């Protein structure tokens, strides 16, 4: 039983020595709790922000995880129950029915999808597209970080919702090609190659109707430039700035007035009521193979920090996950 | 018959020599048109932007105006008809029924109100409060440039809509006092005196629900800081930046994500469908005296440029108008 602790706060981009892999502490099973052996851990961009303050030094990181109950002192869970919880960054966690949730596995749906397109990642995409952007059939959608977890889920869900044209940005030619051939993105841009705003304008000559942003900075500015009058932006992250470089606020923000744009932020944790709808919507699509949960899987608990850093560098395609055991 | 032409483009703050008062040219009455003697001219912040490009050099400025038909070659208007049109900055204008609109004067409602709280100014306030912010009874509202035309109209309309607490900002202690004693603003801040964000937080200790912004810059940043989670911003201008100084984009824009804010721009010219509703809503309030159209009136066509410059300096309370004749 091991855990990974944050032992120093990153300055800029995190480094391996900000973390320490140590034997677990404080895993006390008391009545009403269950011991969970973790099977899958999620590493996500928002964790970089938590490391600046919300995560305690000397304590294990927190994160979404899936595991199997191996000991139970609660009538809610029998041994073998699969649960979701948010005490990741450790091989074993003690949970209560209040701090965890039973996963009902549908036939033909892989467990890991519950950390991917059916999990918080997919729910971020679904909330942005459905509740905030209210994407309409035939519309042109732009997705930043399109090859990442939220980005791939958004591209696949947007197609199911009838998007007319999907433009995605990513940081390499290989990922751009993959987005077009595998994920169904109509035009994938490599933002490291030439002007982003020029590429975006060429990819959407009539302008974009809606933008799902988890990058901020230059991407947000380019989208504001290319949005049609009355366009909408659903904003859920600014990964371009989490390591202290880059500027969130776009120079052309006043186009929000001139083009009557709507810029609206959202947090997936305040939109959990949409989860049953998402699972009902996607389960048959996953079962038929019409949709997959795009994932990059790293094997072994001791690889968690490496997986997190690789995700920050954009080395994953789809959701970055750590498989344990 | 005279007109005021833009003869050079302002660099920064406009000066009197950017303009020239000359005899009218091109006032040709042809079938289908009418000659209007203007009675009231409006001077507005947006005109500063027009002077950077949209207004032609050597041509008269454009702007909202009210006048009386003195000659008519159209069956739509008889001599004496009062019309609204957008060919201001001149003593006389030639209009068509398509480029103008008959004003139906209600008893007890002053004509000038049709350039004030019943005109584009009031419609900006109403659109922002009703359509964009969807202000709910009991909510706390912040209004920037509260002593100006849109600001005073917004404060009075918000009170009718049931706003719980109205906080307004202005640039002098005298105007702040006037806002509280005459306009019904609950707390008026002088942004030139101390920290704006600290004053705003003190005036709205539970946070603000909604913000009507026609200033941008530091005001927008302060509002973002003090808005409650889920708060809304209706953005219709950035007068703090029209003269080339100041920055539109707030440093704390990412709070839009962290607090799930909605920032939405609007242009009054795309919301003219709300005008009948506004006039129906306000006419009985104006007739009973429950609401007034706050105005600063400058007399004499030759004072138009002075009135415009004084408005840019914030010397008016309520809508700045020029009365002719």
TrEMBL record, chains A, B:
Domain of life: Bacteria
Keywords of the record: Oxidoreductase
UniProt GO molecular function: oxidoreductase activity, acting on the CH-CH group of donors, NAD or NADP as acceptor
Transmembrane segments: none
Pfam families: ADH_N_2 (PF16884), ADH_zinc_N (PF00107)
Domain Enoyl reductase (ER): 16-322
Name of the protein in its database record: NADP-dependent oxidoreductase
Organism whose genome encodes this protein: Kribbella albertanoniae
Classification of source organism: Bacteria, Bacillati, Actinomycetota, Actinomycetes, Propionibacteriales
